[in-house]
Each structure stands twice: as C-alpha cells, then as structure tokens.
Amino acid sequence: MSTIAFTLMFAVWLMFGILGKPIKEEFGLSDTELSWIAAVAVLNGSLWRLPAGMLADRVGGRVVMTAMLAVTAVPAFLVSRAESYGMLLVLAFLVGFAGNSFSVGIAWNAAWAPRERQGLALGVFGAGNVGASVTKFIGPPIIAGTAGTTVVLGLQGGWRLIPVVYAVLLLVMAVLVWVLTPAHDHKPGSSKTLGEMLRPLNQVRVWRFSLYYVAVFGAYVALSAWLPLYYMDNFGVSLATAGLLTAIFIFPASLLRPVGGWFSDRWGARRAMYGTFFVMLVTTGILMMPNGRIVIDHADGTQTEHLAYAMHVVPFTALLFLLGCAMGVGKAAVYKHIPEYFPGNVGPVGGLVGMLGGLGGFFLPPMFAYTKAWSGFPTSTFFVLFLLTAVCLLWMHLTIVQMLHEQSPELAEKLEAPDRHTPDHSDPTTPSTDRLEEARA
User: Fold this and answer.
1) Kind and range of the H or E run holding 32
2) Residues near 322 by beta carbon (within 8 Å), at least 6 away in sequence
3) Average pLDDT over every residue of 63-72
4) I want to staple 128 with a disulfide (CB 3.0 to 4.6 A). Which of 7, 95, 98, 119 is the partner?
5) The pLDDT of residue 137
C-alpha cells in the first residue's frame, strides 16, 4: 500500500513535466520560466523530507502518509483553476509537498522490514518512482481528447483536467491506506529526544550519502521533468511521443530499484555504487557530446568538412535507458547504507539524504536551462550530470581507499566494512568493534 501511495504521490509531484508544453503555449512562457514551475515543485517536495521522516519514526508512517495524501489533494485540484504564471508558481510549490512522502515511506518500511531484507524492501517501495511516468502515459491522450471542451461539473478539459483527476485519486488513496494498513504501527523514534534523532547528522558520512543521492535521484527527477521538452525541441517529436520516450528512461530508473536493493543485500552497496557511477560516467560522457563537424579552411579558399557527428533519437534513447538502469540500482544502494550505519535513526538520516537529493532535482533543471543558454548546446544538460557523477565517484573512491588503509589488511576486499574510528552514535548499544567483527564474518 505504501508503494502504491508513493507511486501516486510521485506522479502528482512531477506532473508538470508533461503539462509543461501546453502550459508554456497557453501562458506564453520561455524555457527558463517553465523550468521554474517544475523546479519549485521539486523544491517543496524536498524541503520537508527530514522532518517528515522524523515524524514518521515518532508517530507512525500510516498516520503521516494518510495525512499527506489528503492534504496534497487540495492544491492539486486548484492547479486546474490557475489563471496566471504567478499563481501557477505558488500552486506548483504547494503540490510539490507530495514529494516528501518518500522519507515517510522509507521510515515506515524500514520499521517493519528485518535488517537482512531492508535493501530489497526499501527498493520495492522506492520503485514507486515509476509514478514519474504515469502522467507521461495518461496525460497526452486526456489532453488531446478533452482540449477545448468542458467536462462534468463545469471542469475544463485539456491539461487542466489532469490535476483534477489526481486530486480525486489522492483522496481515494488516503482512505485505502487508512483502512487497509495495520492500525498498530511501529514507532522506533517514539522514545527518543529531538537531539538524539538529529545526532547522526553531524557525521560527514551522511552528507556524502546525500551527494550520491543527488546524482542518482536528483538527476533522475530533473531529467524526468526536462526530457519531454528536450525530445520535442531537439528531435521534433510530438508531446505523446516525447512522453513515451521519456518513460523508457523512467521505467528502468524506477523498476530496477528492487534489483539494486537485492544486489546490495547480497554483494554490498558500495559495489553497486561503483557500477552505478561507472555506467553514469560513460553514458553522460557520450550524451554530452554536441552535434557538429570540423571545418577546415584551405589556402586556396575552399573548405572541407570532417568528423561529422550527430546523435539521433534511437541511440540517444538507448543511452538514456542505460543511464536509467544505473540510477535505479544506485538509488537503492544509497538507501541500503542508511539502516546499516544508522539502524535506530532511519527516519532522520533517510529524510536528510532524501531532502538533499530532492534539492538536487530543484537546482538541476534551472542549471540545464542556464547552461544551454550560456553555451548554446542542448547537450550541456549531460555535461552537468557528468561532472556531478565524477565528483561522487572520486569522493567515494578516496573514502574507501582511506578506510582500507586504516583497517587491517584482511579487510582489503570487504568494501562494506564500517570505519572503526567513526562510531555509530545513532545506536549506542551497538559498538563499532562489534560491527567490525560482523563485517569480517
């Protein structure tokens, strides 16, 4: 039930990705103005992830998830009544609250799942990211079939009908979650003070995990909203086709999350992260190459062209598919780290990692727009992602090298061994030496 609810909330959170084109045409917006509509939704869907995760640990995920579903239905409906760009920005920001459901679900599921299965359990829940593709499928046919008409109760058709449909579904889902999930909920943070819940956040490790999540999740969110417009502008496809092609990226980036969790349970999260970052570097490195050719001016005044290069839609989509596969595995691998290192504080730590990862989804779309305007190359989008991935991989590798130098030689092949010099303050009953012996075993 939590996965279904999260799928719906994620669809609502990112609905402006497919609604952007008709909104842009109706209100006469520039690419930069349009990018801010999606960006403010992502912003509000990230700001409250830390307190939402902490609240779920304290009062139970069932209560918090139900309340979020009901509350989000109000601004979702009001989007259909927007009459100005400023009003759209405000309502997009409020609708973005749906994105905070992620940290609620992470805390809720971690409280119920045994430690040895948490990677898979959190991966299954996180597969709700596939909600980003829901609007890509249902949006274009609804928009095309109802444009310029008035449906029941005086509601306008076209893009304005989509948020009304979502508002109804959110209310129905709130009732189902409340009725069908266990009334008795686990509350691992109910007896902890605020200081105890926040104490793990002073560790550099938490902030490093957060940067990883910016690369595998923030970039995923940004691309999910950015790609429909990218396809239409650079390959001349229709809105419906752009939505379907974007879904080819979204599906593996979401549905492979359980696979990433299972892989991390069995072979370790850091091995999964190495594979993720390597594939992301290769794919973004190719995608960032601009179309063009080398022109040589000869002494006799003639010109010749050499090494012409152009990325066509099929190889572009294939590379995006591989990029999505890597992100799907990487998202689960990042969250496998959290219950391992912070078993008693999954809510606040997971909330902070999710918050910063989501904020990456807020900053990246405007960065895509501004780098495109500055460079003139649409492919600068992927140059931004290439640099981000390179920084993450370098920081992770240097950390592991340092850890292996500090640990005894027999741990040289065990990438998952925790740092013996950095105790896990989130669970004082589990000393670092015990965890080191567990890693050796």
Assistant:
1) helix 31-47
2) 279, 283
3) 94
4) 7
5) 79
- What's the CA gap between 12 and 2, in Å, rounded? 15
| DSSP state letter for 237 | -
pLDDT of residue 189: 61
The first and second tokens of residue 154, run together, are 């005086």
Tens digits of residue pLDDT in 173-191: 999 999 999 888 877 666 6
Confirm whether pTM is higher than 0.85.
no
SS3 content of the chain, % helix, strand, coil (to 5): 80, 5, 20
Helices (H), 214-256: 219-235, 239-255
Instruction: Concatenate the DSSP letters of all residues of 311-373 into one string.
Output: --HHHHHHHHHHHHHHHHHHHHHHHHHHHHH-TT-HHHHHHHHHHHHHHHHHHHHHHHHHHHH
Of the spans 105-109, 126-130, 135-139, 289-293, which averages the highest pLDDT? 105-109
> Does residue 163 have a pLDDT over 50?
yes
Q: Angle 16-27/239-255 helices, nearest 10 degrees? A: 150
List, in order, residues 6 or more apart from 190 with CB less than 8 Å away: 57, 58, 59
Residue 93 within a domain: yes
Q: Report d(CA 327, CA 4) in Å as an integer.
A: 21
- pLDDT of 318 above 50: yes
CA distances from 343 to 251, 347, 430 (A): 30, 10, 10
- CATH number of residue 216's parent domain: 1.20.1250.20
Within a domain: 24: yes
Does the structure show a pLDDT above 50 at 104? Answer: yes
Q: Does 159 reside within a domain?
A: yes
Q: Please state the rounded mean pLDDT for residues 215-236.
A: 88
Tell me if 298 is assigned to some domain. Answer: no
Which residues, 6+ apart, have CB-to-CB distance to 254 below 8 Å?
126, 127, 128, 129, 130, 131, 132, 133, 328
Predicted confidence (pLDDT) at residue 419 exceeds the cutoff of 70? no
Angle at CA 173, nearest 5°, toward 169 and 179? 150
- The DSSP code for 401 is H
Over range 107-132, report the average pLDDT. 81
Q: Which domain holds residue 93?
A: 2-184+194-293+307-440
Mean predicted lDDT score pLDDT of the chain: 83
- Residue 274 has a CB neighbour count (10 Å cut-off) of 17
Tell me how many domains the chain contains. 1
* Triad 33, 85, 22: Cα angle to 5°: 75
